[in-house]
Amino acid sequence: MTDGRTTGTARAFELLEPLVQAATVRVHAPRGGYDTPGSHRTGPTWGSGFFIAPGWVLTCAHVVGEGGAAVRLTGREVGITFHSGRPRYGGPGVPGTVTGTVTGRVECVLPERLEERRPGRNALWDLPDLALIRVLAPVSHACVWLTDRSRPRFDEVAYFGCTEDLGTPEITGRTTRLRGTAGNGAAIRLADDDEIDPGMSGGPVVDLARGEVVGVVKARRHTGGGGLAVSVVQLRTLPMAARGQVGLYRRIMQAHDLYHYDQHLSDLDNRRTWTDVHGELPPQERDPYGGRGRLTPGERTTLCGLLAELPPPSSSEAVRALVEAVRGEEPDPQPPAPLSWRDGLGLLHDPPGGTGEAAAMLRYATDVSVAEYREPPTPGADEELWDWVRATAERLWRPLRRELGERHERGLAERERRRRASAGRAAGGPARRAGGLPPGASVLLEVWAHGWEHLYDWRVSVLAGPAHPGRLTPVDSGVRATVAGLPERLRAPLAEAFRRCDTHVAAALLEVAVAPELFGLAVEDWVVAGGVPLGVQRPVVLRHPGGRSAAPGPGLGPNGPGTGPGGPDIPPGGPQAHPADHEAGRAAARWARVQAGPLQDERADCAGGRPRAPSAEWLSGLPDTTVPVHCRAADQEPTLGSLHAVRDAGYGVAVTRRPPPDPGVSCAPFHRGLREELADAGRAEVLPVRLQTLRGRAYGADPDAYWAAGAGLVWEDPARPLPDVEPLHGDL
C-alpha cells in the first residue's frame, strides 16, 4: 500500500527503530545461572525489557518469574544483555554499539500480590504484570522516551523484543495498530497485523506518530496474531514512599527526563537523540494544534528537564489542581493519578475550547514555578523555569506573554502569603495542630447492604475536604460483593484513591461511611499495599452514610423551602427554625467543645459488663466533651440502637469495638485502656492519629496496646459533609 498513512508509518519506523533497539534488552538467567555461578553462559531467553532511565529496566513480572515458581520475585537477580551506547545511524543493524551483559535485581513487581499468589503455568498473570529491575553496575546505555499521556491514541505502533528467527537472539521490531483497551485501561489490545514471537514479552510498544513508548508487550493470542500490552502509565502504581521520602516512580521519571534533557543539550557527539527524531517525524494530518499551537520537541524536552530539577509536588491533588486551573475544568479522572509535574503536562494535550496546547503548557509551567513544593528547591531552579517560560512565550502571542507575567506575579504574592502563614512549620507541611489530621482531601469508602442478601455494593471516592465542602470525585464502584470478597475487590480502587490524596508528610484519612450495623467491618485490618494493614498505615474513621454535617438553611424542611412533611410550615408571626437546624446547631456545638477537650468517656451500651440501652434524655444531659463508648457488637442490640441514639443526640465523636471472638473475655481492659488514652490525649482532634499509633503498636506486638484490637472511631466532622446518595443499583 502506498497511501500517505502507510508511507508516514514506514518513515517513522525507520527513524525510531535504531533508538528503540538500542534501549531494548534481553532478559535471562544471571551469568552462569543459579547452579553454575562461575560460568559465563547466559542461557535461554526469558523475555525482553527496555531501559526507561539510567540503571532501570522495565519488563513484565512474568518474565522475571520465568523458571522460578518457588522463588520470591522481588530481590531476584536476573541477567540483562544490552547495547552499550546509542545508535549512530547510517549502517546495517545497530552500528557503533557494543553488546554487554550485566546483572540486575528485581526491585518490585506489580501488582504486589504476585508475591503471594501467582497464576498457573500458561495462565495470564494479573494486570499490570510489570517488574522494575535495577542494574547492579554502572554501564553506558540508551533509554526510551516514555509517554506522558494517561490514555493511548489508537494509531499505528511498533513493538520490539528479542526473537531467535535466525537461530541467535536479536532485537527486532514489527508494526501493528492499537485497537482498544482492557482491564479498565491498564492493558492495550494489539491488532493481528503480525504475530508476537516468544521472547518478545516485556518489550516496548512505540506510538509511531508521536515517537513515544506507550506500552509493554504482555501476551500474544493463542490463535493468530495480535495480543496484549500493558500501558506504561501503570508505572504510577508503584508502591508509595514512606513519609518524607521521594517515591520510586518520581525518582525514576526524574532520572528519565534529566537523561533526555542532558542528551538534548550535549554537543559531545553527532548521534541523533529522541528529541532530534521527534522533530523529523512526519507531521500528523489534520492537527489543530500544529505550528505555534504545540511546543517544539526541543521545547518539550527542555520543559520536562526543568520540571525534573524541581522538588516533586506535595501530592497528586496538587498536580490536578494546577491542571484544572489551566484547563478550566476537572482533568480526566481516569486512573492512575498524576504523581509528578510531568504527569500534569500529559493532562494538557488537546485542551478544550480551542486553547493552544503550547499556551496551556506554558500557563501550567508558570504555576509550577510558584507552586508549593514538598521541600525547598535548588536555589534558582524555579526562577530558571520561569525565565524559560518567558523566553519561549516570545514566539507566541503578545497577549499571552502579558497574561503569563501577571500570572507569575500573582503566584509569587500567593507563595509569599503561604510562607508567612506557614512560619514555624515544615515547608509543604499541612496546616494543622500537632497530632491532628491534615486538612486536605480524604478517601471515602461507602458500602451499602444489597437488599436482604448478604451482598454489598460499594463506591470509592476522593472527598475534597474543607477547601471544597461536599465535592466528591468518584474513583471506582461495584455491586454484589461478599464481606469476604470486599478486601480484594477494593484493593486496587483504594490504592488509586490513596495515590491521589497522600502527601509526602501525611497519609490521607480513610473515611468509611456505612450504616451502623456495618461498623464492625474490619477495614482497618485490610491490606492494600506494602503488606501492612490499613489502620497501621493511615488514620481510619467511621461515618454514618450521607451525614448531617451541614445544617439546612433557615426555614428549610425536608421537602423544600418552607415546607414540612405535610405542607406549609410557616406559623403565624413569621418563619421559625426547623428542628433540624436546632439538631445541627447542637451537634456543631458538641463537636467544637469535644475537639478542644478535656475528654471524658462514658459507657453507652454497657454497665459493669452487662448490656444496657441509653435513653435520649441521659445522652442529652452528658457534658459536650463526652465520648460515648461502645464495647459490644454493632449489629446487635442494644449497641445498634445506642449508635443511632448517640448520633441523634449530636455526638460527632464516639468509640465502638468489634468484640473478641471469645464471648467470655471481659470488656474491662478495653474500657480501662481507653479511659487512659482519652485522658492522655486531652482533646478529640488528635484521636484519629492516636488510634492509628495504637494499631501500629499492637501490630508491632506491644502487649500494652492489645486492648485496642477492633476499636473504631466514629468521626462526623462538620467540615467534611458527605453527599446524600442512594445505594448503587446493578444487575438490572
Describe this structure as you would to a colleague.
This protein has 732 residues and is of the alpha+beta class. Helices cover 28% and strands 21% of the residues. The protein has 17 helices and 27 strands. The chain has a 6-stranded antiparallel beta barrel with strand order 1-2-3-6-5-4. Strands 7-8-9-12-11-10 form a 6-stranded antiparallel barrel. A hairpin with a 6-residue loop joins strand 11 (212-220) and strand 12 (227-231). Helix 3 packs across helix 5 (297-308) and helix 8 runs antiparallel to helix 9. The protein is globular, with a radius of gyration of 29 Å.
Topology:
Blueprint: H1 4-23, E1 24-28, E2 45-53, E3 56-59, H2 61-64, E4 77-84, E5 98-110, E6 130-135, E7 156-163, E8 170-182, E9 187-190, E10 204-207, E11 212-220, E12 227-231, H3 248-265, H4 274-280, H5 297-308, H6 316-327, H7 341-346, H8 357-369, H9 381-392, H10 398-421, E13 442-449, E14 456-463, E15 472-481, H11 486-501, E16 510-513, H12 534-537, E17 540-543, E18 556-557, E19 560-561, E20 563-564, E21 567-568, H13 579-596, E22 600-603, E23 606-607, E24 610-611, H14 616-620, E25 626-629, H15 639-648, E26 653-657, H16 668-681, H17 687-699, E27 711-715
Parallel strand pairs: 13-16, 16-17, 22-25
Antiparallel strand pairs: 1-2, 1-4, 2-3, 3-6, 4-5, 5-6, 7-8, 7-10, 8-9, 9-12, 10-11, 11-12, 13-14, 14-15, 18-19, 20-21, 23-24, 26-27
Helix pairs in contact: 3-5, 5-9, 6-8, 8-9, 8-10
Helix content: 25-40%
Shape: globular
Number of strands: 27
- What fraction of residues sit in β-strands? 15-25%
Strand order of the largest sheet: 1-2-3-6-5-4
Biggest sheet details: 6 strands, antiparallel, barrel
Number of helices: 17
